[in-house]
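This protein record is not my work; I was only asked to verify it. Where you disagree with what is written, explain briefly why. This is what I was given:
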Amino acid sequence: MDEFFPEPYLFEGTPFAINRIIMARLISVAVLATICILYARRAKLVPGRSQAAFEYVLDFIRKSIGYEVIGEEKAARYLPALATLFLGVFFMNITGIIPGLHIASTSLVGMPIIYALFAYVMFIASGIRTHGVGGYFKSQLMPAGVPWPIYILMTPIEFLSNFIVRPATLVIRLLANMVVGHLLLVLTFAATHALYFSVGGAGGLLGGTVTLLGGVAVVVFEILVAGLQAYVFALLAAVYLALSIEEH
Protein backbone atom coordinates (compact mmCIF):
# COMPACT_ATOMS: atom_id res chain seq x y z
CA MET A 1 0.00 0.00 0.00
CA ASP A 2 3.00 2.30 0.33
CA GLU A 3 2.95 2.54 -3.47
CA PHE A 4 -0.06 4.83 -3.18
CA PHE A 5 1.64 7.16 -0.68
CA PRO A 6 5.15 7.77 -2.04
CA GLU A 7 7.52 10.15 -0.31
CA PRO A 8 7.90 13.61 -1.91
CA TYR A 9 11.18 14.32 -3.68
CA LEU A 10 10.60 17.96 -4.66
CA PHE A 11 9.57 20.87 -2.41
CA GLU A 12 9.24 18.53 0.57
CA GLY A 13 7.61 20.15 3.60
CA THR A 14 5.72 22.75 1.54
CA PRO A 15 2.16 22.81 0.14
CA PHE A 16 3.75 22.25 -3.30
CA ALA A 17 5.44 18.93 -2.41
CA ILE A 18 5.70 16.65 -5.44
CA ASN A 19 5.82 12.87 -5.22
CA ARG A 20 5.58 10.22 -7.93
CA ILE A 21 1.78 10.43 -8.26
CA ILE A 22 1.75 14.22 -8.46
CA MET A 23 4.52 14.09 -11.05
CA ALA A 24 2.51 11.56 -13.08
CA ARG A 25 -0.45 13.95 -13.00
CA LEU A 26 1.66 16.90 -14.11
CA ILE A 27 3.14 14.87 -16.97
CA SER A 28 -0.36 13.74 -18.04
CA VAL A 29 -1.59 17.33 -18.15
CA ALA A 30 1.50 18.52 -20.02
CA VAL A 31 1.27 15.77 -22.66
CA LEU A 32 -2.47 16.23 -23.19
CA ALA A 33 -2.13 20.03 -23.41
CA THR A 34 0.73 19.69 -25.91
CA ILE A 35 -1.29 17.33 -28.11
CA CYS A 36 -4.32 19.64 -28.08
CA ILE A 37 -2.25 22.75 -28.81
CA LEU A 38 -0.41 21.08 -31.69
CA TYR A 39 -3.70 19.83 -33.09
CA ALA A 40 -5.25 23.31 -32.91
CA ARG A 41 -2.27 25.02 -34.52
CA ARG A 42 -1.56 22.49 -37.25
CA ALA A 43 -5.09 21.43 -38.19
CA LYS A 44 -5.53 21.13 -41.96
CA LEU A 45 -8.51 20.63 -44.22
CA VAL A 46 -7.01 17.34 -45.38
CA PRO A 47 -5.77 15.77 -42.13
CA GLY A 48 -2.59 13.78 -41.73
CA ARG A 49 -2.41 10.60 -39.68
CA SER A 50 -1.95 12.31 -36.31
CA GLN A 51 -4.72 14.81 -36.92
CA ALA A 52 -7.03 12.10 -38.24
CA ALA A 53 -6.40 9.96 -35.14
CA PHE A 54 -7.17 12.83 -32.78
CA GLU A 55 -10.26 13.81 -34.76
CA TYR A 56 -11.44 10.20 -34.62
CA VAL A 57 -11.32 10.37 -30.81
CA LEU A 58 -13.20 13.68 -30.77
CA ASP A 59 -15.76 12.30 -33.22
CA PHE A 60 -16.22 9.25 -31.00
CA ILE A 61 -16.91 11.51 -28.00
CA ARG A 62 -19.30 13.65 -30.04
CA LYS A 63 -21.37 10.79 -31.46
CA SER A 64 -21.10 7.96 -28.93
CA ILE A 65 -21.42 10.10 -25.82
CA GLY A 66 -22.84 13.51 -26.78
CA TYR A 67 -25.34 12.69 -29.51
CA GLU A 68 -26.36 9.27 -28.17
CA VAL A 69 -27.08 10.44 -24.64
CA ILE A 70 -27.95 14.15 -24.79
CA GLY A 71 -29.23 14.40 -28.35
CA GLU A 72 -27.74 16.06 -31.41
CA GLU A 73 -29.58 19.35 -30.92
CA LYS A 74 -28.48 19.92 -27.31
CA ALA A 75 -25.09 18.20 -27.19
CA ALA A 76 -22.94 20.83 -28.93
CA ARG A 77 -22.80 23.12 -25.90
CA TYR A 78 -21.51 20.33 -23.65
CA LEU A 79 -19.04 18.56 -25.95
CA PRO A 80 -15.95 20.51 -24.74
CA ALA A 81 -16.69 19.51 -21.13
CA LEU A 82 -17.33 15.87 -22.05
CA ALA A 83 -14.13 15.77 -24.12
CA THR A 84 -12.24 17.24 -21.15
CA LEU A 85 -13.56 14.48 -18.90
CA PHE A 86 -12.87 11.66 -21.36
CA LEU A 87 -9.37 12.74 -22.37
CA GLY A 88 -8.40 13.89 -18.89
CA VAL A 89 -9.41 10.64 -17.23
CA PHE A 90 -7.79 8.54 -19.95
CA PHE A 91 -4.44 10.32 -19.80
CA MET A 92 -4.47 10.12 -16.00
CA ASN A 93 -5.32 6.41 -16.12
CA ILE A 94 -2.73 5.40 -18.69
CA THR A 95 0.22 6.49 -16.53
CA GLY A 96 -0.24 3.20 -14.70
CA ILE A 97 1.63 1.37 -17.45
CA ILE A 98 4.15 4.07 -18.44
CA PRO A 99 7.73 3.04 -17.56
CA GLY A 100 9.18 5.25 -14.84
CA LEU A 101 5.74 6.26 -13.56
CA HIS A 102 4.09 2.87 -13.05
CA ILE A 103 1.04 4.18 -11.22
CA ALA A 104 -2.25 5.60 -12.44
CA SER A 105 -2.71 9.25 -11.58
CA THR A 106 -6.30 8.43 -10.58
CA SER A 107 -5.33 5.66 -8.15
CA LEU A 108 -5.37 8.14 -5.25
CA VAL A 109 -8.79 9.53 -4.38
CA GLY A 110 -8.00 13.24 -4.89
CA MET A 111 -8.04 13.17 -8.69
CA PRO A 112 -11.28 11.16 -9.07
CA ILE A 113 -12.92 13.62 -6.66
CA ILE A 114 -11.81 16.57 -8.82
CA TYR A 115 -13.27 14.99 -11.96
CA ALA A 116 -16.48 14.05 -10.13
CA LEU A 117 -16.86 17.62 -8.83
CA PHE A 118 -16.36 18.91 -12.38
CA ALA A 119 -19.20 16.67 -13.60
CA TYR A 120 -21.31 17.51 -10.53
CA VAL A 121 -21.09 21.25 -11.06
CA MET A 122 -21.68 20.80 -14.79
CA PHE A 123 -24.97 18.92 -14.52
CA ILE A 124 -26.34 21.02 -11.65
CA ALA A 125 -25.43 24.33 -13.34
CA SER A 126 -26.89 23.11 -16.64
CA GLY A 127 -30.12 22.06 -14.94
CA ILE A 128 -30.46 25.43 -13.21
CA ARG A 129 -29.75 27.29 -16.46
CA THR A 130 -32.42 25.25 -18.25
CA HIS A 131 -35.19 25.21 -15.63
CA GLY A 132 -34.27 27.91 -13.14
CA VAL A 133 -33.31 27.24 -9.52
CA GLY A 134 -36.79 26.34 -8.28
CA GLY A 135 -37.79 24.39 -11.35
CA TYR A 136 -34.60 22.35 -11.39
CA PHE A 137 -34.63 21.28 -7.74
CA LYS A 138 -38.37 20.61 -7.87
CA SER A 139 -37.94 18.33 -10.89
CA GLN A 140 -35.07 16.47 -9.21
CA LEU A 141 -36.58 16.12 -5.75
CA MET A 142 -40.35 16.04 -6.40
CA PRO A 143 -41.18 14.04 -9.55
CA ALA A 144 -44.52 14.92 -11.10
CA GLY A 145 -47.54 12.66 -10.76
CA VAL A 146 -46.81 11.42 -7.24
CA PRO A 147 -49.37 11.80 -4.41
CA TRP A 148 -48.26 14.50 -1.93
CA PRO A 149 -47.85 12.21 1.11
CA ILE A 150 -45.39 10.06 -0.84
CA TYR A 151 -43.02 13.04 -1.19
CA ILE A 152 -42.21 12.72 2.52
CA LEU A 153 -40.50 9.44 1.71
CA MET A 154 -39.47 10.09 -1.89
CA THR A 155 -37.79 13.52 -1.59
CA PRO A 156 -34.98 12.39 0.78
CA ILE A 157 -34.38 9.34 -1.41
CA GLU A 158 -34.23 11.48 -4.55
CA PHE A 159 -31.83 13.87 -2.82
CA LEU A 160 -29.48 11.06 -1.86
CA SER A 161 -29.73 9.49 -5.31
CA ASN A 162 -29.27 12.63 -7.39
CA PHE A 163 -26.90 14.72 -5.29
CA ILE A 164 -24.91 12.28 -3.15
CA VAL A 165 -24.84 8.88 -4.85
CA ARG A 166 -24.14 10.14 -8.37
CA PRO A 167 -20.80 11.87 -7.64
CA ALA A 168 -19.84 9.19 -5.08
CA THR A 169 -20.27 6.37 -7.61
CA LEU A 170 -18.20 8.27 -10.17
CA VAL A 171 -15.35 8.52 -7.65
CA ILE A 172 -15.55 4.97 -6.30
CA ARG A 173 -15.82 3.26 -9.69
CA LEU A 174 -12.81 5.06 -11.16
CA LEU A 175 -10.67 4.78 -8.02
CA ALA A 176 -11.38 1.09 -7.41
CA ASN A 177 -10.56 0.05 -10.97
CA MET A 178 -7.25 1.91 -10.98
CA VAL A 179 -6.21 0.62 -7.54
CA VAL A 180 -7.02 -2.98 -8.46
CA GLY A 181 -5.15 -2.67 -11.74
CA HIS A 182 -2.03 -1.40 -9.98
CA LEU A 183 -2.19 -4.19 -7.40
CA LEU A 184 -2.45 -6.80 -10.16
CA LEU A 185 0.61 -5.38 -11.89
CA VAL A 186 2.57 -5.33 -8.64
CA LEU A 187 1.60 -8.91 -7.77
CA THR A 188 2.45 -10.39 -11.16
CA PHE A 189 5.80 -8.67 -11.65
CA ALA A 190 6.83 -9.02 -7.99
CA ALA A 191 6.09 -12.74 -8.28
CA THR A 192 8.16 -12.90 -11.46
CA HIS A 193 11.12 -11.27 -9.74
CA ALA A 194 10.85 -13.56 -6.71
CA LEU A 195 10.54 -16.74 -8.76
CA TYR A 196 13.40 -15.92 -11.11
CA PHE A 197 15.90 -14.59 -8.56
CA SER A 198 14.92 -16.13 -5.23
CA VAL A 199 13.46 -19.56 -6.01
CA GLY A 200 15.58 -20.43 -9.03
CA GLY A 201 15.74 -23.85 -10.64
CA ALA A 202 13.33 -25.27 -13.17
CA GLY A 203 10.30 -24.57 -10.97
CA GLY A 204 11.27 -20.96 -10.47
CA LEU A 205 11.99 -20.51 -14.17
CA LEU A 206 8.66 -22.01 -15.19
CA GLY A 207 6.67 -20.17 -12.55
CA GLY A 208 8.43 -16.88 -13.29
CA THR A 209 7.69 -17.24 -16.99
CA VAL A 210 4.00 -17.85 -16.26
CA THR A 211 3.74 -14.79 -14.00
CA LEU A 212 5.70 -12.70 -16.53
CA LEU A 213 3.23 -13.60 -19.27
CA GLY A 214 0.42 -12.87 -16.83
CA GLY A 215 1.95 -9.45 -16.16
CA VAL A 216 2.09 -8.68 -19.88
CA ALA A 217 -1.57 -9.71 -20.17
CA VAL A 218 -2.44 -7.40 -17.26
CA VAL A 219 -0.62 -4.51 -18.99
CA VAL A 220 -2.76 -5.03 -22.12
CA PHE A 221 -5.85 -5.32 -19.93
CA GLU A 222 -4.95 -2.08 -18.14
CA ILE A 223 -4.80 -0.23 -21.47
CA LEU A 224 -8.34 -1.41 -22.17
CA VAL A 225 -9.49 -0.51 -18.66
CA ALA A 226 -7.95 2.97 -18.92
CA GLY A 227 -10.01 3.66 -22.05
CA LEU A 228 -13.13 1.94 -20.76
CA GLN A 229 -13.15 3.84 -17.46
CA ALA A 230 -12.67 7.14 -19.29
CA TYR A 231 -15.61 6.26 -21.52
CA VAL A 232 -17.83 5.17 -18.61
CA PHE A 233 -16.98 8.28 -16.60
CA ALA A 234 -17.80 10.65 -19.47
CA LEU A 235 -20.88 8.60 -20.42
CA LEU A 236 -22.34 8.73 -16.90
CA ALA A 237 -21.60 12.45 -16.69
CA ALA A 238 -23.55 12.86 -19.95
CA VAL A 239 -26.42 10.76 -18.57
CA TYR A 240 -26.63 12.86 -15.41
CA LEU A 241 -26.47 15.98 -17.55
CA ALA A 242 -29.28 14.77 -19.80
CA LEU A 243 -31.44 13.99 -16.77
CA SER A 244 -30.85 17.53 -15.50
CA ILE A 245 -31.84 19.34 -18.68
CA GLU A 246 -34.71 17.19 -19.91
CA GLU A 247 -38.09 18.89 -19.92
CA HIS A 248 -40.12 16.04 -18.41
